[in-house]
Write a structure and sequence with these properties.
The chain is built from ten helices and ten strands. The protein has 316 residues and is of the alpha/beta class. The protein folds into two domains: 38 residues; 276 residues, Rossmann fold (3-Layer(aba) Sandwich), CATH 3.40.50.300. Strands 2-7-1-8-9-10 form a six-stranded mixed beta sheet, sandwiched between helices. Strands 3-6 form a two-stranded antiparallel sheet. Strand 4 and strand 5 form a beta hairpin. Helix 9 crosses helix 10.
Length: 316
């Protein structure tokens, strides 16, 4: 007959064995992920030290949180690796038996035609995708409701956007996901941020704003849009994570690398690709809110992963 002490020893050994096996499984998944995504070998250490504890934390939250799904937001400037982080978290959590919907705010961009209509009606700068006001937030909110209500075997179509063509993907090219959904990951460059004050909008911060938004109409409308339905979307998040760039100056270099990867995988005839000068102009659309995120979100995010100039991750 087992004594209480022997039972405790058996339970401890079982827990230790399962923990070691799970850690080994995660390590192998990360190694496979690094190879598939052509990431540097240093990503293994960063992911193990920073992201594995996060996976355990999300699992603990899931065990104590009802109802599902559990909503995770990831904020990061262009090129910080938020899409890669979201993909890895999704893979690790899926391997543990969770059903994960991995979304980007980019999935909800308006079509090229819709943005041109906004450019004609509101301000010419809305022809370019990216800032608040260029997304179908109502679609995003409806999709989150669908994901929350999805039952077994119920098919949900996830929207998508083709950046190489700068337009929405056709429905038949979009991913489908079956319910029920345990976790929803939503990543994007301004996820979770609050609008700026009127005083902060007064001065132009770059050449784009000085020459093409001299009266401030564009940035004011962007801020008004951010203050509206986007806050309802962000209000659904149970956890907000941030990949913090060392500064806005790193964004041009990292965004250029991102464009190069996009170019390698683009189909023939892709018209949405940009050269260096186009990227330099493009990121000026994002500069105001990117700097605002870097200044304000570290105080409100649940967890911040600081990046150095070599793209290495440090948790804080």
């Amino acid at each position: 007959m087992n004594t209480p002490n022997s039972v405790r020893r058996i339970n401890f050994c079982l827990c230790f064995f399962l923990t070691v096996n799970l850690h080994t499984m995660y390590q192998q998944l990360i190694k496979d992920f690094i190879q598939q995504e052509h990431l540097p070998s240093s990503y293994l250490l960063d992911a193990t030290q920073c992201f594995l504890p996060l996976v355990h934390d999300i699992q603990a939250q899931l065990q104590s949180t009802s109802p599902r799904p559990f909503f995770v937001g990831i904020n990061g400037a262009q090129g910080t690796g938020k899409s890669t982080m979201a993909k890895l978290l999704s893979s690790l959590l899926t391997s543990s038996g969770y059903n994960v919907a991995n979304l980007s705010i980019d999935d909800f961009y308006y079509s090229k035609a819709k943005r041109q209509e906004m450019a004609d009606r509101v301000h010419p700068l809305f022809a370019s995708r990216g800032v608040p006001g260029t997304h179908d937030v109502d679609l995003a909110l409806r999709l989150l409701e669908q994901l929350s209500a999805a039952g077994p075997e119920q098919q949900i179509t996830l929207p998508g956007f083709d950046k190489s063509r700068d337009d929405c993907r056709p429905i038949d090219a979009c991913e489908q996901l079956s319910g029920p959904i345990d976790i929803v990951i939503l990543e994007g460059w301004f996820i979770g941020v609050k609008p700026q004050t009127a005083d902060e909008l007064t001065q132009a911060i770059n050449d784009l704003e000085k020459t093409e938004d001299s009266d401030g109409r564009w940035r004011t409308h962007v801020n008004q849009q951010l203050a509206g339905a986007y806050q309802s979307l962000f209000g659904k998040l149970n956890m907000l994570l941030m990949l913090q760039a060392p500064g806005f100056e790193a964004v041009l270099q990292w965004r250029s690398l991102q464009e190069e990867k996009l170019r390698k995988h683009a189909e023939d005839g892709a018209s949405g690709l940009m050269d260096r000068s186009a990227i330099e102009r493009f990121i000026q659309h994002f500069e105001r809110l990117t700097r605002h995120c870097l200044e304000t979100l570290p105080d409100s995010a649940d967890r911040v992963f600081r990046l150095d100039s070599d793209h290495r991750i440090h948790s804080s």
